[in-house]
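Ticket #4471: structure output looks truncated?

Reporter: J.K.
Steps to reproduce: submitted the chain below (164 residues) through the standard prediction queue, then opened the result file.
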Amino acid sequence: MPHDDQSTWALLRQLDDPQHMEFPRGYDPDATRARFEQLATRLDARFQCTCTVDRQVQDASHHGTVVIPATAADSAEHITVTISNFGNLAVVTLGNPGSYSEEEEHELFHATDGLRVEEELEALGYTVISEHLLWTRYDGVSDLVSYYPPEHPPTWWIRFFDYL
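Returned output as attached by the reporter:
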C-alpha cells in the first residue's frame, strides 16, 4: 500500500543523500539484483505471462523496470513497475511513467491489478511510493538542480527513479 503524502515526503528527504546520487551508502548490488529478479519471476507467475524486464540500467538512481503486458492485466494498458536503488522504493504506473494524471489513473487502473502488484512488492519488502508526488520539483539537499536549466528543473522522480 502506498505511503500517505506526509510519510512519503519524510522518507524521500531522509534518503536524499547529497554524496550518493546513483545509489545509497552501503548499497549491495548483488542483493538488490537478486530481489529484483525475484520480483520479475513473481510478477510473471502472478500475471501468468512473461514480463519485459529492463536489467541494463546504468548512470541512474533506479535499478530497473518490469513491464506487465496489457494482455495479462485487467486494465486496458500495460503496467510498469520501477525499482529505485534507494530505500527499497518502488513505483507502479499504468502505462509508462507520467502517461496518466492521478485522476485518469484512478479511473483506468483496475484495482485487481494494483492489488496483485502491490502484494508482490510488499512480500519482497519494497515500499510503494505514489508516482504523482514524484513529479514535484526537486528541492532536496543534493546539487542535482545545478545540472538542469531553470526552465526544466529536475523532479523527485529524477532523483530516485530515472537516469542522472
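Triage note (M.O.): checked the attachment and the full C-alpha cell line is present. The longest strand covers residues 62-68.
Status: closed, working as intended.
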